[in-house]
Amino acid sequence: MSKVDVKIDPGDLSRLNQVIKKLKSQAPKELSKNIAHAAKFIENDAVRNAPVYKGDAYLGGNLRQSIGSEVLGSTAQIFAKAKYAPYQEFGTGRFVDVSEAQAIGIPPAEIKRLYKGSGKRKVNIQPQPFFFPAVRKGLKRLLDSIEVSISKLV
Known about the structure:
Layout: H1 10-26, H2 28-49, H3 54-57, H4 62-65, E1 67-72, E2 75-80, H5 85-90, H6 99-102, H7 108-115, H8 131-153
Antiparallel strand pairs: 1-2
């Protein structure tokens, strides 16, 4: 399977926010349905792309099993509960790469602040992004589905 790199344009994000406001006022149930579908898509894509290690594989992968989503109305939360998820996503030591999260507007300093180690040992893990690429693809998909919903309403 080949790797696909998808980037969300900042203009698309602002367009998405405008479209969500419009849909919220005109069809809240339709918006909730679109958000639920996008959350499930993001969850499934993150699970599919999360790394699994040989010792972990017989369990289906602890990291993969920790990924989930919750939807409440027009709000969705997608998560990875494994404590080491951010270190797999962003890498550690000299390999830290936060560009995947930065592409959707999360400041690099915020990520580094949250996941900075105590400096007791040097561990250099290559980043294996699985979560934020799924988020970017899911946001693009959400934007497309909301635009279809709006065109049906108008």
